[in-house]
Structure formats: C-alpha cells, structure tokens
Design a protein that fits this description.
Layout (H helix, E strand, L loop, with lengths): L1 H13 L2 H31 L7 H4 L1 E5 L2 E3 L2 E4 L2 E4 H39 L10 E3 L6 E3 L18
Antiparallel strand pairs: 1-4, 2-3, 5-6
Helix pairs in contact: 2-4
The structure holds zinc ion (ZN).
Zinc ion binds next to loops.
C-alpha cells in the first residue's frame, strides 16, 4: 500500500496530471459558458424570427403527441428534435471557432517568441572551409595538405 501511494504520488507530481486536470476543469467551465451563450443569447435571437417561438419547438417532427389528463402529463411527447440538435451544432461551431482563434493566437505568440530568441542569438558563422583547390591539377584536396594526392605536386603550406 505504501508503495502504491508512492507510485501514485510520483505519477501525480511528475506527469502532466495537474496541467491536465486544470485543462479539464477550464474546458468544462468553458463548455458551460458557450452552452449558456447559445441557450440565452443565440436561441432567443433566433426565436425573434416571425413564426419561430423557440428553436427547439419550431424545428421538430412530433411522432406521438403527449397525453395530458387533468393537467398532468400521462405520457411524454415523442419527437425528432431538429431544433435542439441545431442548438448543439451552433454551440459546437462557436466552441470550434473560439478554439481555432485561441490556437492561432498561441501559435503567433510562439512564433514571435522564437523569432525574438533567434534575433538575440548571433547568427552562426559559416563553417570554415575544410578543402582547397590544388593550383596545379584543380582537384579538391584537404585544406592542410602539403602535397596533392592527385598530381603529387608539392603545395605551398597554408598561410603562404
Ligand atoms: Zn594536384
């Protein structure tokens, strides 16, 4: 049991579990926020369209009417609710758009940060040449060669 606790502790601290948990909590809150936006702002605006009292009510096919006796619902209405489904699609599209904008701005920030870092670093000097051309046979040979391996000519030593 002690070992189990130790392993769990390591997992919780070492891994990105805390980051992940924060992500899940914020994601949940965010979804609730967008859901509220659709339910309280988008749907009422759609309901302003003449003849549409409520999106959920306007777009549905009732398969079986509710049975009401003495003001009490005996059996629930059975319906295909396109309106409710459309609401869910609108919520999803809003979420997708916000996430897209979020990811886009984060990428932009990352890119700017990388460029800033790059600008701070001095540009890498071009690599020193490791070969030279033999003046006699025009072959490419090692920079510090004193005799050409191709034509066997003696070469002036480097620096001369
Ligand atoms: Zn040569």
């Amino acid at each position: 049991m002690k070992k189990f606790m130790k392993e769990f502790k390591e997992f919780a601290i070492k891994g990105n579990m805390i980051d992940m948990a924060i992500g899940v909590i914020i994601g949940g809150a965010f979804t609730a926020l967008v859901g509220a936006f659709t339910a309280n702002i988008v749907n009422p605006l759609l309901a302003l369209i003449p003849g549409v009292n409520s999106l959920d009510e306007a777009l549905k096919i009732v398969l079986k009417e509710a049975v009401v006796e003495d003001g009490a619902v005996v059996s629930e209405e059975v319906a295909i609710k396109f309106g409710a489904f459309l609401s869910a699609i609108i919520t999803f599209l809003i979420l997708a758009l916000i996430i897209f904008l979020l990811v886009k701005s984060i990428n932009k920030m990352r890119k700017a940060e990388e460029e800033r870092k790059k600008a701070a670093e001095p540009p890498a000097e071009p690599a020193a040449p490791t070969t030279k051309i033999c003046p006699f046979c025009k072959s490419e040979i090692a920079i510090d060669a004193t005799r050409c391996p191709h034509c066997t000519s003696e070469l002036p030593s480097a620096g001369e």
